[in-house]
Amino acid sequence: MTPLRGRFLIDFLTYSLHMQRNPRTGDQIGRLDISPRLRRRIALRVGVPVAIATAVGALFFALSPRPVAVTATPGDGSGGTVAAAADSTFSLASFVDARDLMKDADRTFVVQVIGDSTGNEPGEWVDVAFRALSEELDRPLVQHPWDVLSSAYLEPIRSNDNAPHAPLEVWNGSASGKTAEYSLANFDTLIPVEPDLVILNHGLNNVLEPAQVGEQFTALVAEIERHWPSQIGYAALLENPRLDQYSAAHDDVIDHVTGWLAEHQEVRAVDVHSAYLDSPDVTTLLLPDLLHPTPAGSALTASTVLDALQR
User: Fold this and answer.
1) pTM score, two decimals?
2) Structural domain of residue 81, as residue ranges?
C-alpha cells in the first residue's frame, strides 16, 4: 500500500503518520470534515510522557492476564466453520455514501466493530476514536461492549450525554483471542441491529492459518449482506505489527488482507500496519508481549481510523 501522506501531532510525541489516497485506485475521495482539534483531543486523552505510559502498560501487562495471543484452532473454539466457497460477488454500498449519513445530525449513526483484543477495552482504539469523534460531531456516544464469557453485550457505556444531536452508537464486538470465524458463529447476537458502517479488525489471531483470513472476511460480509443487502459501508484494518515469534506469519496475514481488499474495492482500507512501522520507534507502541498496543499505540490506531473516515 502507498504510505499515508502528511503529518499531525498524536499522542505523547510527534509520530510520523503518512496520509494516503485510496490504496487501490489512487483517488482522493470526498472528506468528512473532522478538524485537527479532534487529533489534539486524542493526544490530551492519553497526555502523559511516553516513558511513563510504557512503564504503566508494562506493569499492567505483568499483573493482569492477557487475552490469548494466537488461536489454537481455525474455529477458535467457536464451533463453526467458514465455507471456503462463500460468495464473494456481493455488491456493496459505497463507503462514502454510508459514511456521509453521519452528517445528518438528527439521525442516529450506528457503527459495528468486529474485531479482537486490540479494541475491546476502555482506552483502546475503539473507545479513543469514537469518544473523540462524538465530541467533534456534538453527538452523545453510546458504546456497547462485547463480553466473551457470556457471548453477549454488557450494559452500554454512555458519554458526552449533553450533546445536542442524535447519538453515535457503537456496537463494539471486539472479542479477545478470536478470529472473524468466531464473529460469524455469533452473528445474531454480535450484530443485533442494522449498522451504517462495519469496521473489520481481525488478523492478529490468524497467524496459525494466515490464508483463512480472507475467506473469513468474505463469509462474514456475505452474511451481513444477506441481512441488509447493499446498504452498509465497510472498512477493514491492516492491523498493527506483531514483533513476537509470529511476526513472519502475521506479515503473511497482512498480505492476505491486502489481497482481499484489492478484490473488494468498495471496502475502505485502514493501514494501521504501515502507520506503526513508519513511527520513530515501533517498540514504544507495543506492550512487552510485542503484540498488544500501548496507550500510545492505541492512540495511533485511533487516529489512523479517523483519517480513513475522512478520505
Assistant:
1) 0.79
2) 36-310
